[in-house]
Amino acid sequence: MLIALDIGNSTITVGCFTASALFVKKIDTFPRGSAQKYKGVFDEFMAENFVEKNVSGVIISSVVPGHTGVLRKALREVTSAKPLLVSSRIETGLTFNIRNPEELGSDRIANSVAAYELCGGPVAAVDCGTATTVSVVGANAAYVGGAILPGIRLMSEALAKGASQLSKVPVTPPKSALGSNTEDCIRSGIFYGTAGGLERILGEIENETGSEITVVLTGGYGGLLSPFLKRAHRVFHNLTLEGLRLIYTRNKDA
Q1: Residue 184 bears catalytic tag
Q2: CATH of 2-85, one of 3.40.50.300, 1.10.10.10, 3.30.420.40, 1.10.1240.10
Q3: What is the pLDDT of residues 154-194, one digit of tens each?
Q4: What is the chain written as a DSSP string?
């Protein structure tokens, strides 16, 4: 069994890969818990899904450095397997044709690996989370760049914080692009604005590269945003975890 851990800015996603299934649990990133607390969460999760503790490997993607150590410690309490930390320096199956690849988020690396494995290239992995990220891999398995824009929830929070007459609204899709009240106007702007922004970014990338790009959508808000994208795309809710599984497989004998 493999444990894959994706430590994101809003959510920690735990994936347990067995021979026949994937079990997933999500935990709020903040407030940060103790190693003992996380160990209890892992133990309970595995017991609930009848997953035995015969763990063969652990892989971690983290974009929250302050959480990495405590979660590694918790996992060492659950299994004796040495965790593999994702970065551009390990074997991923990709080459990185960008400046400063060490700055690339490990979640974007995992998304890119999985998207390329699933669809080939050129492909863009669009992760709709705290930030909405676009990660592009060319036909030759080369990571060539991407884009980052504020996520759907972050937009709502920023409007509420920065505009005195606007309040934070629940992140639910609008029924119409033409809002009839303030909340509906905010929802319209957030969803249609994000979808339109992605359409423009992806179109410009295709113009610059001269290649048509397959689009894979993932992330906590991926399913909500999907109906608003006119461009053909596929949705894979566990894209990051699948990428972590592939990366672990490519490094387990290294």
Answers
A1: no
A2: 3.30.420.40
A3: 999 999 999 988 888 999 999 999 999 999 999 999 999 99
A4: -EEEEEE-SSEEEEEEE-SS-EEEEEEE-SS---HHHHHHHHHHHHHHTT--S---EEEEEES-HHHHHHHHHHHHHH--SPEEEP-TTS--S-EE-SS-GGGS-HHHHHHHHHHHHHH-SSEEEEEESSEEEEEEE-TTSEEEEEEEEE-HHHHHHHHHHH-TT---------S-SS-SSHHHHHHHHHHHHHHHHHHHHHHHHHHHHTS--EEEEESTTHHHHGGG--S--EE-TTHHHHHHHHHHHHHTT-
